[in-house]
Specification:
Length: about 375
């Protein structure tokens, strides 16, 4: 703990460090809440150790965070009341280290960074109901809207291959081939392998859409799961999306798929009750209504076409990533026990099944949000 206090003290903050506690439930980085001896408003900040096995060039994350923060603050400063919707919107600030850098490398070459704490708000691990779902959708649409006019060449690629499902499938095949898993798999792993085998052809749906020019590369968040959406403690409104490590050029569909797979499973990613996992279509409607209330300005007809596929794909992809990591021996996602990532994969695959069962209903919800096609998009 002394070491953590010393590291926290490397960042320019508002007073002496009193306490450093573990914080949140991230699967990749280590997160701590730092308490300072200072007036109430700035008593806390977030200290994180970036996992360099995942992020090989963590400096790039900080370059993107700076670019994003500058861009969004500029946008916010010229918004009128109507655009602001009577809400506050917060972008976490990066704190400088004592030597003026946006990060600190300790003598063991660990990479640390400090960001402001979004106070008077809570990130929930599971959806609490329809209005929470609508707020989550609003938050993602608001975030996308605020960065939609950022040039993609202003953003670095912080995690090469992230959300490129065919590449995850390629890695899975390598892992499977490297070892003698096939013979030695237990029933759950066998089920996962069969599950993947049946859906291989589908894995390229979004990459194909990208290659065909149907979906443009845009700035995206990368990880808008429910735990990253901050809800104001007093108004119950969404006021921020945190965890900006994977902001980079990509598809907004990766984000929409990720937000829906996370928010429409009210049992959560870690539930022990796999049999009861289902995709809740009423939550899906709420999320899309919140999203569309603010994203319509940049959303195209083609974008609607791929919504169902993106929900199914990103859920499948996360299951595949968890399963591959299980086969590799838990080298990417933190695991509390040997079968943890296998269990997580089973949850996501159960969710995929439920999404597939509700395909008609989900497509109908999307159709209800689709606006009449403007003349400019009629071919
Ligand atoms: C990881 O570390 P965390 O919990 O913010 C992962 C996401 C997954 C998520 C599943 C960089 O996010 O892609 O959707 O776990 N982040 C990375 O909970 O791989
Ligand atoms: Mg994350």
């Amino acid at each position: 703990m002394d070491k953590l206090i010393q590291i926290a003290e490397q960042f320019n903050t508002n007073g002496p460090v009193v306490k450093v506690q573990e914080y949140g439930t991230g699967n990749v980085n280590d997160t701590y809440l730092v308490t300072l001896d200072s007036p109430d408003s700035a008593r806390h900040f977030i200290l994180q150790r970036i996992n360099q096995r995942v992020f090989h060039k963590p400096e790039l994350i900080m370059v993107n965070m700076r670019a994003l923060s500058e861009h969004v603050h500029r946008r916010l400063s010229v918004e009128n009341d109507e655009q602001r919707n009577g809400r506050r919107w917060v972008v976490p600030r990066v704190y400088s280290s004592r030597d003026g850098q946006s990060y600190f490398r300790d003598p063991d070459n660990e990479f640390w960074r400090a960001i402001s704490f979004v106070d008077r708000s809570t990130a929930y691990a599971r959806i609490r109901g329809g209005s929470h779902a609508r707020e989550a959708g609003y938050a993602l649409g608001r975030f996308h809207g605020l960065i939609s006019d950022m040039q993609i060449d202003q953003l670095q690629d912080t995690l090469v291959g992230f959300h490129i499902t065919p590449q995850y499938l390629g890695r899975y095949d390598e892992v499977l081939a490297q070892d003698h898993h096939e013979g030695g798999m237990n029933a759950d792993a066998r089920h996962c392998a069969d599950f993947v085998a049946k859906r291989r052809a589908f894995a390229s749906v979004l990459e194909d859409a990208k290659a065909a020019g149907d979906l443009p590369i845009r700035p995206m968040h990368g990880d808008p799961k429910i735990d990253n959406i901050m809800i104001d403690d007093h108004t119950d409104q969404a006021i921020s999306i945190i965890d900006l490590d994977t902001v980079k050029p990509g598809l907004v569909h990766y984000d929409i798929g990720d937000c829906l797979r996370s928010c429409c499973n009210s049992l959560g990613e870690e539930t022990p009750d796999i049999a009861s996992v289902k995709f809740e279509t009423d939550m899906c409607r709420e999320i899309l209504s919140g999203y569309m209330s603010t994203a319509r300005e940049f959303f195209t007809q083609k974008d609607y076409d791929y919504l169902y596929d993106s929900i199914r794909l990103i859920t499948f992809e996360l299951g595949l990533r968890f399963f591959t990591d299980h086969l590799e021996g838990n080298v990417y996602f933190k695991a509390r026990h040997r079968e943890h990532n296998l269990h997580r994969a089973l949850v996501q695959f159960k969710l995929v099944e439920s999404i597939e069962e509700h395909e008609g209903e989900i497509r109908k919800i999307v159709a209800d949000f689709r606006q009449p096609m403007p003349a400019s998009q009629l071919s």
